[in-house]
């Protein structure tokens, strides 16, 4: 009887060990990297800021373990407040258009866009513009369950005033591939994995390498194998909640090229070193051009 009890105990330990090992390698459902930090300012303050900046014109997922950006370092970076609550990032691709993730556009009614700054919650920053928008458009084949075709654009009500702090970014050529390249991601996403952690008050950035999509598929299932996704390895630093829609860029002959937009990552947190998924913008140049009316070939 004693030997039977010992055998049962040994079996229980073995089963527990196996379950633990399987859990460590389990495929998890990915999560969007947008965030809900609460309104940075009252609606009236945003509108007043926009009016003041317009008057001046007539006479503006944190990166986990990233570095603080200086103003003008990422002049195409946009901070997007959706219905004064949900927070995303984006990229200025034209004086009146911001590119972001579809899930940052989906379900929104009012978008406010900050350009030219490096601080997300400071009421006033020199060189920054606050923009009200005309509307947003998401890709017709966007799938929020599989998280594919996750791309959208937002139209500004008035054109951004280009300066040393505000510039457009060049889009990747259609069909280009970047496997093995290392690029830069920037954003205002969360600083840690604590649920109550707010978005970063400062723009941050880090470098991440492009890896085979199978790396993301091993972590999240088969959806990342879709060609609308590119996979980035994130060990030591990463994009996080609040970075959604923000830029991933590479350097080509001294020129900054927008390659991806932050899409999804690990539900369990940003500090675990799990890979992250980005929208492969090279697959959407025609749709972006047709939607915005911008000729990216010229």
Automatic annotation (TrEMBL):
<keyword id="KW-0720">Serine protease</keyword>
<dbReference type="InterPro" id="IPR018114">
    <property type="entry name" value="TRYPSIN_HIS"/>
</dbReference>
<dbReference type="InterPro" id="IPR001254">
    <property type="entry name" value="Trypsin_dom"/>
</dbReference>
<dbReference type="InterPro" id="IPR009003">
    <property type="entry name" value="Peptidase_S1_PA"/>
</dbReference>
<keyword id="KW-0378">Hydrolase</keyword>
<feature type="signal peptide">
    <location>
        <begin position="1"/>
        <end position="23"/>
    </location>
</feature>
<keyword id="KW-0645">Protease</keyword>
<protein>
    <submittedName>
        <fullName>Chymotrypsin BI</fullName>
    </submittedName>
</protein>
<keyword id="KW-1015">Disulfide bond</keyword>
<dbReference type="InterPro" id="IPR043504">
    <property type="entry name" value="Peptidase_S1_PA_chymotrypsin"/>
</dbReference>
<dbReference type="InterPro" id="IPR033116">
    <property type="entry name" value="TRYPSIN_SER"/>
</dbReference>
<dbReference type="GO" id="GO:0004252">
    <property type="term" value="F:serine-type endopeptidase activity"/>
</dbReference>
<keyword id="KW-0732">Signal</keyword>
<feature type="domain" description="Peptidase S1">
    <location>
        <begin position="63"/>
        <end position="293"/>
    </location>
</feature>
<dbReference type="Pfam" id="PF00089">
    <property type="entry name" value="Trypsin"/>
</dbReference>
<comment type="similarity">
    <text>Belongs to the peptidase S1 family.</text>
</comment>
<dbReference type="InterPro" id="IPR001314">
    <property type="entry name" value="Peptidase_S1A"/>
</dbReference>
<dbReference type="GO" id="GO:0006508">
    <property type="term" value="P:proteolysis"/>
</dbReference>
<dbReference type="InterPro" id="IPR050430">
    <property type="entry name" value="Peptidase_S1"/>
</dbReference>
């Amino acid at each position: 009887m004693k030997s039977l009890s010992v055998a049962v105990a040994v079996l229980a330990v073995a089963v527990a060990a196996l379950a633990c090992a399987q859990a460590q390698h389990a495929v998890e459902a990915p999560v969007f990297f947008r965030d809900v930090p609460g309104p940075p300012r009252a609606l009236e303050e945003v509108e007043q800021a926009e009016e003041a900046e317009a008057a001046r014109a007539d006479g503006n997922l944190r990166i986990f373990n990233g570095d603080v950006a200086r103003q003008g370092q990422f002049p195409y970076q946009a901070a997007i407040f959706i219905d004064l609550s949900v927070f995303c990032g984006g990229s200025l691709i034209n004086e009146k258009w911001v590119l972001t993730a579809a899930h940052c556009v989906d379900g929104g009614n009012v978008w406010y866009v900050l350009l030219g700054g490096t601080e997300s919650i400071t009421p006033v920053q020199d060189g920054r513009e606050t923009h009200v928008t005309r509307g947003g458009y998401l890709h017709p084949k966007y799938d929020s369950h599989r998280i594919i075709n996750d791309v959208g654009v937002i139209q500004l009500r008035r054109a951004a005033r280009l300066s040393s702090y505000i510039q457009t970014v060049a889009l990747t050529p259609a069909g280009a591939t970047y496997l093995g390249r290392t690029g830069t991601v920037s954003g205002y996403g969360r600083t840690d994995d604590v649920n109550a952690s707010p978005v970063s008050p400062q723009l941050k950035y880090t470098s991440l390498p492009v890896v085979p999509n199978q790396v993301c598929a091993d972590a999240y299932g088969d959806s990342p194998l879709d060609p609308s996704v590119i996979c980035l390895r994130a060990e030591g630093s990463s994009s996080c909640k609040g970075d959604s829609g923000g830029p991933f860029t590479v350097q080509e002959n001294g020129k900054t090229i927008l390659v991806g937009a932050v899409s999804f990552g690990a539900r369990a947190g940003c500090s675990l070193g799990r890979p992250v998924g980005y929208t492969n913008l090279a697959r959407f140049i025609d749709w972006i051009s047709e939607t915005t009316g911008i000729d990216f070939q010229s």
